[in-house]
Amino acid sequence: MSTHPAKDTDTDLIILTEDETGQRLDKILAQRFTNVHSRTYFQKLIEDHCVLVNGSPVKKRFQPQAGDEIEIQFVITPEIDLTPENIPLDIVYEDDDLIAINKPSGMVVHPATGNWSGTFVNALLFHCKNLLQTGLGDPLRPGIVHRLDKDTSGILIAAKTSKAQQRLIELFSSRKVYKEYLAICLGNPGNRTVDAPIGRHPIHRQQMKVIEGGKPAVSIIQSIAHDEKLSLVQVIIETGRTHQIRVHLKHCGTPVLGDTLYGNPQANAKYGVQRQLLHAYKLRLPHPISGKTLDLTAPIPKDMEEWVAKLNRQQLP
Fold first, then answer.
1. pLDDT computed for residue 140 by the predictor
2. Across the strands, what pairs with 108?
C-alpha cells in the first residue's frame, strides 16, 4: 500500500519542552510516541516533509528548542494496514453509490494515532467488501467525505465509488449540504446567528477559538426548549470548521454539556455527563449520481433522549 499524507485528526501538534532541547528531532518524536511508531518511521516522515517545525520542514538531525511548535502528519505505510472489522453499523440509508449511518458516540471515523482499529473505516471495509479496489483516494480514509468528532453522534455519509466520492466532496465544499445538529447546552443562547471566524487557539494548540484572522464560520442557533439551567438547541451550520458548534456555543457563553475540551468541568461533573451531548441530526443533499434530494435523519441516542424529556420537549423538530 502506498504512502499518503494523512489529514484532519491524523495531524498531531506538540510543543517542545526544556527537557527535550538539544536532542535530534527524530529521537524526540520516537520518545514522544513510544510503542506507537519507530524512530525509523519518524525519519521517513521528516524526509517526506510530513513534520514541520514552526511551520517549516527540517532535516532529521535538526535539534529544536523549547517552545518550538512541531506539527506531525502521520501517513499510512506498509506496516500500518487497514483491517476490515465486523462492527455493527446502524444504517440509515444505502444504495450502490453511498452509505449513511447513525454513528454512535465513541466511534472514531478513520484510523489515526491511538485509534488504528475499531473505526468507522474498519467497519466500512467489512460491510463494503470491495471498497479498497475502487480507487477511493487516501487509503487511510476510503470513501470518507466528511467526519464527526469521536464523541459526537449522528449522520455520517461515506461514498462507495470514486465518482460518488468526488461529487460528495464537491457538494460539501461548495456548501450544498444542509447540516442540522442538536445539542444540550448550559444556559440559553436564544435564537441567533453566530458569524464568527474560527482559528487555532494561540495558547492551547489542541483547541480552536473564535479569533480575528480565522476562517469564516457561520452557525444558526435556535433554542427549542429550556429551563433555568439547560437548553436543547438546534444548530444549522453553513460552514464546517473544526469543532465549529462547540466553539460557537462556548463563544455564546453556553457550552455543550459534557464537552471536556470547551465545556464547564464543574457542570459536567454535577450532571454526570461523560461525553459532549452533540448529535448530527439531519443532512439534506442532492444524491451524488441521480441528483434526487436525500433527506436523512438520525434518531437521537438514549443519553440525549433523557435530557430532551427532562426539558419537556417530547417531539423534536
1. 60
2. none
Q: Which residues pair with 286 in a beta bridge?
A: 293
Report the predicted TM-score, pTM, of the whole model to 2 decimal places: 0.77
* Tens digits of residue pLDDT in 70-114: 999 877 554 456 789 999 999 999 999 999 999 999 999 977 666
The C-alpha cell that represents 98 in the structure block: 453511498
Distance of CA 80 to the CA centre of its chain: 21
Q: Domains in the chain and their CATH numbers?
A: 8-73 (3.10.290.10), 82-174 (3.30.2350.10), 179-280 (3.30.2350.10)
- Reduce the secondary structure of 89-155 to three states and give it as a string: CCEEEECCCEEEEEECCCCCCCCECCECCCCHHHHHHHHCCCHHHHCCCCCCCCCECCCCCCCCEEE
Mean residue pLDDT of the chain comes to: 87
pLDDT, position 19: 84
C-alpha cell belonging to residue 76: 499510512
Residues assigned a catalytic role: 149
Query: Please, which residues bridge with residue 208 across strands?
Result: 200
